[in-house]
Amino acid sequence: MTAATSRINWSRFLRLARPEAGRLVLDRRRIYVLPTRMGLVFALVLLAMLIGATNYGNSLVFALTFVLGSVGFVSMLYTYRNLAGLTIATASAASVFAGQPARFPLVLGSVSPSRRRYAIAVELPPHQPVLADLPIEGSTRSELMLPTPRRGRLRLPRLTLFTRYPLGLFHAWAYAEPQEECIVYPTPSAEADLPPLSGQGASHQGSEGRGGDDFLALRPYHPGDSLRQVHWKALAHGGGLVVKQFGGEAGEELWLNWNDAPEPDIEGRLSRLCRWVLEAEAMGLRYGLQLPSARIELNHGTAHRDRCLTALALFGEAS
Amino acid sequence: MSRFDPPVSIAGRHWLLTSLALVVAPFIARMPWWLSLLPLLVMGWHVMKERRCWRLPPGYIRVMVVGLAVVGIVLQHHTILGRDAGTALLALLLTMKLLEFKGLRDAALMIFLGYFLVAGSFLYDQSLLSGGYLFATVVALTATLVALHHPAGGAADSRHYLQVGGTLLLQALPIAVLLFLLFPRLPGPLWSLPRDAFSGRTGLSEDMSIGSISSLADSDEVAFRVRFFDPIPPADRLYWRGPVLWHTDGRRWTRLLRYEYQLLEKPQYQPLSPPVRYSVILEPANKPWLMALDLPGTLPPEAEVSPDFQVTVRELITRQRQYEATSYTRYQMRDADLQALEIGLELPKRANPRTRALAEQWVTEGTQGEALVQRALDLIHNQPFYYTRNPPLLTGNVVDQFLFETRRGFCEHYSAAFVTLMRAGGVPARIVTGYQGGEPNRVGDYLTVRQSDAHAWAEVWLEGKGWVRVDPTAAVSPNRIEEGSDVGRFSGEAGAALLSAEDRSLLLRAWHTATDTWEAVDHAWTEWVLGYGPEKQQELLERLGLLRWGWRGVITVLFSGIALVVLIVAIWLLWQRPRPPDPLLRQWLRFCAKLARRGLPRAPGEGPRDYAARVASARPDLGPTVMEIAERYQLLRYGPGGADAGARRTLAQQVTRFSP
Predict the structure, then answer these.
(1) Is residue A60 in some structural domain?
(2) Residue A210: DSSP 8-state
(3) Which of A56, A80, A112 to mutate to test the interface with B (most CBs of B within 10 A)?
(4) Are A59 and B116 a contacting pair at CB < 8 A?
């Protein structure tokens, strides 16, 4: 068993890391400090020097040994201080398709902003740790990239923050278990052909429709609405953000049905449906999604598209 | 924990080279020149690799260079073990490692090795200067370690590393002092040391050949220091007695053999002056004898006095030693052992025929005993004998050559020639080696005796007077002394005259004060830092009353002391000093706190305007005030012109008056 596993077990034993949301401040109850392997080597060197000093009766070798021992000891406080008061803020990652890396934003800050922090490492276990400095009164933004081998809900795993600055004799670390996740959509399949159009608008199948041209009404802006539909004049007049709704009677309508997908397996079908959703959205169709477990009514727009993709991503998972 | 081994930054590489160069420099300086080429070449290559991107020399060359280093060490020291060879080899290998270290781990190990080599340097030199140099080296090594653990560092961070390293050392110092004073010191070596453990220590040896003392004359090293409890005796009585030499082959003089010492009896003597009490701090010379003023009276219990009044101890003196003694500078010896007188007349039959002929001629002319002594001294005084530190090389019958041809010499020449003359003339005589004089320190009130004060004189046995000291070197006419200002001391008056002449010059006096102050500081360093061993520790603990509870008490005090210091350092380091927030923000936070107390906390991320609007709708009675304050704050914060002192003050007053 390596030192690493034993250390993790220890921490589990001492304190169960609980999930936490938003911003986390590292205080003394969260920070663990142990000597590193280098620290042990250093101790051995000091021991050798102590024996040498006794053997040769050499006062200055004694003095050097004691000074170095004390330096090592004080450096433990420095290592601890480098981590204490660090704040970690995380956010959920934007959804991606399986295979693309998920990028979780991470902001390291400080509750005592008058001090620089050096070489803080953020580690997501299978990867090499990423080192960052924190300037005085500042914060460091970075991204934690995680591979997404499959669709579904990807939780940001427990992070380890550690530092060995300044002398590398001690390893101070803390765990952060952020409640962040990334919805990983299925990988769109390669075949782009849509199933046959259904509903009233079947005859109008074509590329002209883009949600219709006829102005319907103004409604408040929702995230995901196209900027082209924002009623800018109304905004300029102080009327707030509203969007013009178009549509009209048209609407080539398309039901994307689980049973229409030719693939035999679940993941293949989800891939196919994912592709269809993207195509339908790109063509400006009104489309709906029919899954064995759920049904999403006809609509269009990026928000709708994302709803559909999320439903595909979480297919089979308890939502 | 996966292997954490980030690469070393450029700044880290610079620091590594600098600090390791500082570490190995003293070792390189001690190497013979052909061996020192090796590390210099390697360091040069390293610099070119960093600067000009030279490639690493191929692997087989590196292996060959390591092989060369080992061969060189073996050629020089005939071993690869022991202090000299071991440390030199470590220094060489450490330099080689510069060429091929990989990441942080390698570099950190090199730094640890560097610390170890600094300790090795202390085995050679513990002087104040060397201590200062090596402390600076330790600071540099620590700064390097900091740099190594900051892989993202740039050239601009170099000063920061130095600062962190220095601060760490300063903060560690109180704990180190506690440990230094109270950590239990075990006496003596734990196992037998390699033979070269204390070599290179200069000092008197068991024998004397022509040229052996003059090699000491150039050494400024301190032999011992003396603090007198009584007035310091005059310079012409400051003869520090060392080995006494009896046997000779005409060229080399040696001590009595062990069994001869057992046969001889110690002669009685009559003190003619009150005892002089003094305390000596003897530097280790790896010899089993103590230095005492002629003639030694009371001595430390472990010391023994031989029949020829040399003070010896059972073991070699390998560390500084302090002892007290009394001596009688004027004395009268009773009759000596007959056996001793026999040995005191021995001369090799063939050696130095002219000298023997001269003495025999004097005897036939009726000169005997005391008159013979005087005649020999007159010869040295009246004939053109010169005192010089660089005498011509003598071969064959060295005494003959010196007395009749070269006539230029040092104390060993004069004492050897004089004793040879005496023995040939029937007067029992022997050579006494030791030190003469010493340099009074005006600041520290003690005497420093250096290796350059090493001296050799003679003792002759005269009927009714016993053994009498005669210093033939002092008989050299003062106007025939070459480059030897220190020779004035041989005759009391001449020395005194020299001293007063010196004192006349103000500049010289200032110079002397300066050197004496340095000397006193050095003395304190030697006595209190270097000399702090098991005995001194015992003394300190007794004085502090800590020994009442035994070592357990000492360790308790040590650990409580360390805990206290660590607590202070920890508070200093970890105290969160909140910076005063900007005054505008402070007023706003005060305002928010007041509202929060009334159950209307500001939501995170809520701006002043939204917050005020929400408060106003929840508490219409507060509405106007809240809106006004929020508006003013916003204006001050984000508005044009911003920092208007008057508006700020109004805001502060409003917030103060505000009581929801």
Answers:
(1) yes
(2) S
(3) A56
(4) no
Residue B119 near residue B106 (C-beta atoms within 8 A): no
List the single residue in B with minimal CA-CA distance to A66.
B176
Give yes or no: residues A144 and A207 share one domain. no
Chain-chain contact of B138 with A67 (C-beta, under 8 angstroms): yes
Instruction: Note whether A28 and A146 are same-domain residues.
Output: yes
Residues A212-222 pLDDT 10s: 455 656 777 76
Domain assignment of residue A218, yes or no: no
Annotate B334-391 with DSSP letters as a single string: -PPPHHHHHHTT---SSS-HHHHHHHHHHHHTT--HHHHHHHHHHHHHHTT-EE-SSP
Nearest chain B residue to A80 by CA distance is: B574
The answer to whether the CB atoms of A61 and B116 lie below 8 A apart is: no
How does pLDDT run across A65-86, given as a tens digit for each residue? 999 999 999 999 999 999 888 8
H or E segment and range at residue B170: helix B158-182
Give residue-wise pLDDT tens across range B485-518: 444 344 333 334 444 444 556 777 777 788 888 8
A205 and A156 in a common domain: no
| H or E element that contains B652 | helix B645-657
A167 and A102 within one domain = yes
Q: Answer yes or no: do B123 and A58 touch at CB < 8 A.
A: yes
pLDDT at A26: 85
**Nearest-10 Cα torsion for B320, B325, B331, B335:** -80
**Cβ neighbours of residue B465 under 8 Å, at least 6 residues apart?**
B332, B333
Q: How many domains does chain A have?
A: 2
B185:A62 CB<8 A: yes
Q: What is the length of chain A?
A: 319
Q: Answer yes or no: do A153 and A127 share one domain.
A: yes
The tokens of A45 are what? 């060197």
Contacts of A168 in chain B (CB under 8 A): 104, 108, 145, 148-149
B406, B407, B408, B412: CA torsion to nearest 10: 110
Tokens representing B442 are 């005006």
**What SS3 state is found at B7?**
coil
Burial class (CB in 10 A: 0-12, 13-18, 19+), A51: middle
H or E element at residue A131: strand A130-134
Selecting from B112, B123, B180 the residue whose C-beta is nearest the C-beta of A56 gives: B123
Same domain? For A161 and A207 the reply is no
Residues A262 and A165 in one domain: no
Domain carrying residue A104 = 3-182
Q: What is the pLDDT of residue A217?
A: 63
Residues of A in contact with B174 (CB under 8 A): 70
Binary contact (B108, A38; C-beta < 8 A):
yes
Q: What is the mean pLDDT of chain A?
A: 80
The answer to whether residues B471 and B458 touch, using CB atoms and an 8 Å cutoff, is yes
Residues B159-164: contacts with CB within 8 Å, 24+ apart?
Answer: B161/B11, B161/B15, B164/A78, B164/A166
Among A42, A64, A85, the residue with its CB nearest the CB of B112 is A42
Q: b vs e for B392-427, b when ≥16 Cβ sit within 10 Å of the residue's Cβ? A: eebeebbbbbbbeebbbbbbbbbbbbbbbbbbbbeb
Backbone φ and ψ of B533, nearest 5° = -130, -160
Token pair 């509750």 in the structure block, residue: A111
Q: How far is B149 from chain A (nearest CA, A)?
A: 6
d(CA B583, CA B197): 68
pLDDT tens string B230-253? 888 888 888 999 899 998 888 888
Is position A91 within any domain? Answer: yes
Q: What is the pTM of this model?
A: 0.66
- Asked if residue A140 and residue A205 are part of one domain, the reply reads no
DSSP annotation of B265: -
- Tens of pLDDT, residue by residue over B8-42, are 888 899 999 999 999 999 999 888 888 888 889 88
